[in-house]
Amino acid sequence: MKIFKISAVLAACLLSFHAHAGLLEDDEARRAILDLRQKFDTLQQRETEAFKKVNEDNAQMRRSLLDLSSQIETLRGEMATLRGQNEQLTRGISDVQRNQKDLSQGVEERLRKVEPGKVMVDGREFAAEPAEKQEFDAALATLRKGDFAAAQNGFVALMKRYPQTGYKSSAFFWLANAQYALRDYRSAVANFRALVNADPTHQRAPEALLSMANCQIELKDAKAARKTLDDLVKAYPQSEAASAAKERLAKLK
Predict the structure, then answer these.
(1) Are 169 and 204 in contact (CB under 8 A)?
(2) Strand stretches in 17-152, DSSP E
(3) Would the pLDDT of 17 be above 70?
(4) Rounded CA gap, 182 and 92, in Å?
(5) Measured between alpha carbons, how far is 151 from 191 in angstroms, rounded to an integer?
(6) CB of 200 within 8 A of CB of 234?
(7) How far, in whole angstroms, is CA 252 from its chain's centroid?
(8) What are the tens digits of pLDDT across the range 116-168?
(9) 135 touches 129 (CB < 8 A)
(10) Measured on CA atoms in the order 162, 164, 169, 173, is the torsion positive or negative?
């Protein structure tokens, strides 16, 4: 360093002055020596202060580096904590979304069990409650299995429980068919007639009139049967039931 070089030069000058001290007068030699000493002491003090400053700066730098290292470790720890919290939050959101989906599906399933839904029967579309549809389907399935008494009870119960049911016309038709099978012809006639009177545009109406005429024939009431068949041909001339009615009219005459 420059300070060391200056110190060495001053020391050499000091020795040179001692070597030539005998050539100078005592006072001048002493003043020169004192001056050099003062300069040497000043330089030495500056050198010491410079070393002290360098050491202080180094110590401060080490402290700053330690603080920075500590802060970096703290940040790493905080980042690890945040990652863990983020993972927990993500899992929590996934759980909430899954629970919401399950809840929504459960609500929809319960609503499907109680809310009316659209059904199509005999060409008619209407709204029916799930229990209402279940009762009609069960009564019809029972009829098709040949348990006519149970089917009759099923259709009667349906219309009693749901007097405004959209199944009403179809229920009249199948109830009358169950009664026809049970040979309760009078009840069958009444229910076939109820269908035609209440809903003459129903697609089962022509077939209901034809079946009603069959019941009247079974009751030995040929006059009523002929009238029913005539009404069928006049009201529904293009129907298959009307063609069958014409054949039966020919046999009744």
Answers:
(1) yes
(2) 117-121, 124-128
(3) no
(4) 65
(5) 14
(6) no
(7) 68
(8) 899 999 999 999 999 999 999 999 999 999 999 999 999 999 999 999 999 99
(9) no
(10) positive
* 60, two tokens: 């401060």
Task: Provide the strand spans (E) within the chain.
Answer: 117-121, 124-128
For residue range 73-130, what is the model confidence (pLDDT) as tens digits? 787 888 788 888 878 878 777 776 776 666 556 544 554 455 889 999 999 999 999 9
pLDDT at 192: 98
Q: Which amino acid is at 112?
A: R
Do residues 95 and 142 make contact, with C-beta atoms less than 8 angstroms apart?
no
- From 175, 140, 180, 182, select the one nearest 160 (Cα to Cα): 175
The amino acid at residue 181 is A
Question: Which amino acid, residue 222?
Answer: A
pTM of this structure? 0.58
Classify 128 as helix, strand or coil: strand
Please give the structure tokens belonging to residue 252.
């009744």
